[in-house]
């Protein structure tokens, strides 16, 4: 406990100590109950260390100074090169319980604030707030709050407004904030009542550095009442390598306006130029690494840094915070401003953890966090279907899987080996939204059968402007179970109605006439979430495709050569192999029951949200059961000579059970 207490109870309108000299040290004092600041500095090369400012000698009870704990200002020749705190516990100042800010800097430069508790009591575990912000900086540059070396970081928590607030952007810039705990207790824990009441950091300045990619650079900004970091204005503010999580609002908010929409060319301007956030479409975790893929649109022919973060769960907004820094890659845009990246990062993420990313340009402008993507297998197209291994005995084999849909229009595909003569039962349960279920025979085999030039020519004819030459119109039960398919002429006069698989897997496609009579339905960027989008050139001529994250949610659109070399076959194969559809309303469970008959190979299952719905917060559960041998006694081939095929041209017989 400190032994020398300087009380301002009888001092009148005064600061506690006013230092108007250079090269001085103030150490080991308790300064409290002055109407002004506890300590006022106005010269250079001074050190303030090991003091309690605004508390009693125990450091657990507030005895407030009416002003700031420490006020550093340019009165005469300028206050510069002053140090507040130090790197050892003995150097730590406790700056808490004051009427205004813990520390205020006005028109000063090269002030070093190291190792202090600002807004907590002496234990570092409970709040003892300064009424305004922990640190306030007004004009001047640069100043340093924390640092990368051991002991340099401050704990700035429990304050009545912000952890750190900086303003007067035209005359203040280039401050560096590193290695601090902002909003947590001294152990780095998010504790109720310890966070700063408003934002972790709020500023309207340029060239601010918050964190970094070097060892010890990152801050922990967590547990604050509103946002982690708010950039009200200014440019070239770099916010990378930090752990930002468990705040009441966004991790990073540019312009204090909530999540910003991306724009083509990234020319909208604003705080940090309102730089576009990246769009992630897959995060796949392996035993020793995690692979993240994504895209972004910004200024043409420029280099950018993409930094990646993981969290146990997504922010309620659907956009990220970032609790664990994973790593970074460099990506370059083309002449149209489009860039892509694939990063293999060290470390394994548990299934269900979310990954987010930040984009930073060469000038140092950092974006808001991207929307979250969930770390899980990349089974968003049939060619990447997740294998299920059916296990069991006594004629009953089964497997269960749980996954998330985390993007508009996203599908999850699964496949499993089947035995002839079996009954297949597919159940989809625990639905957080209106999800539908389809079951297919071997799609890969169907695709292989239509890969020859003759097949492709026939397929092109089938997709010509006539609904009746496309067998998909008849091989899909969904086309017949909905009366709207027959009462709406547009369903047959518009060929686009049959080139889009979504028209069959989602019954709602038939209940809305606009789905067929409105050409805009097929030039919409949402076309990118469906492989059939690549059979329609219009899908690429609409620049709006890049402003909607849904445009990039299906990695198969970019990573599967078949989607480009044989797009008709790629889109048609799931239709040709369709066995069953379950599309009940709402969150009711779905079920499909079929017999395998004489089929072997693999069956495929698709789970997709009705009209593109998704839910990042809850898993669906898929269960596949195979009852082997139950159909073994059924003959699947007609006896020879039982039916004589008529001579002449081929005919088609369509049988449909209206029940």
Molecular structure report:
- With 659 residues, the chain is mainly beta.
- It has three domains: 4-249; 277-376, Sandwich (Immunoglobulin-like), CATH 2.60.40.10; 444-560, no CATH class.
- 11% of the residues lie in helices and 32% in strands.
- It has 15 helices and 43 strands.
- The chain has a nine-stranded parallel β-sheet, with no helix packed on it.
- A hairpin with a 3-residue loop joins strand 27 (279-285) and strand 28 (289-297).
- Helix 1 (443-449) crosses helix 15 (567-576).
- The longest helix is centred in the last third of the chain and has 10 residues, at 453-462.
- It is elongated and about 115 Å long.
- The model is unreliable at 464-564 (pLDDT under 50).
Map the helices and strands.
Elements (H helix, E strand, L loop, with lengths): L3 E4 L9 E3 L5 E3 L1 E4 L6 E3 L5 E3 L2 E2 L16 E4 L9 E3 L8 E2 L7 E4 L5 E3 L2 E2 L16 E6 L3 E3 L8 E2 L7 E9 L3 E3 L2 E2 L18 E4 L4 E3 L8 E3 L6 E5 L4 E3 L2 E3 L6 E3 L24 E7 L3 E9 L5 E9 L12 E9 L5 E9 L7 E8 L11 E2 L11 E2 L3 E3 L2 E10 L5 E7 L5 E7 L5 E6 L2 H7 L3 H10 L9 H4 L2 H4 L2 H4 L2 H4 L2 H4 L2 H4 L2 H4 L2 H4 L2 H4 L14 H4 L14 H4 L2 H4 L1 H10 L1 E5 L7 E6 L6 E8 L5 E13 L32
Parallel strand pairs: 1-4, 2-5, 3-6, 4-7, 5-8, 6-9, 7-10, 8-11, 9-12, 10-13, 11-14, 12-15, 13-16, 14-17, 15-18, 16-19, 17-20, 18-21, 19-22, 20-23, 21-24, 22-25, 23-26, 34-37
Antiparallel strand pairs: 27-28, 28-31, 29-30, 29-32, 32-33, 35-36, 36-43, 37-42, 38-41, 38-43, 39-40, 39-42
């Amino acid at each position: 406990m400190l032994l020398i207490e300087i009380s301002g109870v009888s001092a009148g309108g005064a600061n506690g100590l006013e230092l108007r000299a250079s090269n001085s040290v103030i150490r080991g004092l308790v300064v409290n109950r002055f109407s002004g600041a506890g300590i006022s500095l106005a010269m250079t090369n001074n050190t303030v260390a090991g003091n309690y400012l605004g508390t009693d000698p125990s450091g657990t009870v507030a005895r407030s100074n009416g002003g700031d704990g420490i006020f550093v200002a340019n009165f005469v020749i300028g206050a510069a090169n002053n140090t507040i705190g130090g790197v050892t516990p003995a150097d730590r100042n406790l700056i808490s319980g004051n009427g205004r800010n813990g520390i205020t800097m006005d028109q000063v430069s090269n002030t070093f604030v190291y190792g202090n508790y600002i807004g907590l009591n002496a234990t570092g575990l409970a709040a003892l707030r300064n009424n305004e912000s922990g640190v306030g900086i007004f004009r001047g540059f640069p100043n340093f709050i924390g640092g990368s070396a051991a002991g340099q970081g401050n704990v700035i928590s429990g304050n009545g407004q912000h952890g750190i607030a900086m303003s007067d952007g035209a005359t203040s810039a280039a401050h560096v904030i590193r290695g601090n705990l902002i909003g947590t207790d001294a152990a780095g824990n998010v504790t109720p009542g310890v966070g700063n009441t408003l934002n972790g950091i709020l500023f309207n300045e340029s060239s601010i550095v918050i964190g970094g990619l070097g060892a010890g650079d990152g801050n922990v900004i967590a547990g604050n009442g509103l946002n982690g970091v708010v950039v009200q204005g200014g440019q070239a503010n770099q916010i990378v390598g930090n752990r930002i999580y468990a705040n009441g609002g966004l991790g990073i908010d540019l312009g204090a306006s909530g999540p910003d929409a991306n724009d083509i060319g990234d020319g909208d301007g604003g705080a940090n130029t309102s730089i576009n956030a990246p769009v992630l479409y897959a995060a796949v975790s392996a035993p020793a690494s995690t692979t993240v893929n994504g895209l972004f649109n910004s200024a043409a022919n420029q280099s950018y840094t993409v930094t990646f973060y993981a969290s146990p769960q997504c922010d309620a907004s659907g956009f990220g915070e970032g609790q664990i820094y994973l790593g970074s890659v460099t990506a370059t845009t083309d002449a149209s401003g489009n860039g892509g990246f694939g990063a293999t990062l060290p470390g394994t993420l548990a299934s269900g953890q979310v990954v987010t990313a930040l984009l930073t340009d060469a000038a140092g402008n950092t974006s808001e966090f991207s929307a979250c993507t969930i770390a899980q297998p990349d089974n968003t197209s049939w060619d990447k279907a997740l294998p299920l291994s059916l296990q069991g005995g006594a004629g009953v084999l089964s497997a269960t899987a749980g996954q998330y849909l985390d993007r508009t229009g996203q599908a999850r595909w699964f496949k499993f080996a089947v035995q002839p003569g079996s009954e297949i039962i597919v159940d989809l349960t625990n639905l957080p939204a209106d999800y539908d279920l389809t079951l297919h025979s071997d799609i890969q085999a169907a695709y292989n059968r239509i890969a020859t030039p003759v097949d492709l020519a026939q397929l092109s004819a089938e997709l010509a402007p006539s609904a009746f030459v496309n067998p998909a119109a008849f091989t899909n039960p969904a086309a017949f179970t909905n009366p709207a398919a027959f009462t709406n002429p547009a369903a047959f006069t518009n060929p686009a109605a049959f080139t889009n698989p979504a028209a069959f897997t989602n019954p709602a496609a038939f209940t809305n006439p606009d789905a067929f009579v409105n050409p805009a339905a097929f030039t919409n960027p949402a076309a990118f979430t469906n492989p059939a989008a690549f059979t329609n050139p219009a899908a690429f001529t609409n620049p709006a495709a890049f402003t909607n994250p849904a445009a990039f949610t299906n990695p198969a659109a970019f990573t599967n050569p078949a989607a480009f070399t044989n797009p008709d076959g790629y889109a048609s194969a799931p239709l040709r192999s369709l066995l069953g559809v379950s599309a009940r309303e709402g969150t009711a469970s779905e079920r499909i029951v079929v017999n395998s008959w004489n089929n072997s190979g693999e069956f495929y299952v698709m789970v997709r949200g009705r009209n593109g719905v998704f839910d990042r917060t809850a898993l669906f559960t898929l269960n596949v059961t195979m009852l082997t041998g139950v159909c073994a006694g059924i003959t699947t081939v007609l006896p020879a000579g039982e039916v004589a095929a008529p001579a002449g041209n081929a005919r088609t017989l369509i049988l449909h059970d209206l029940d």
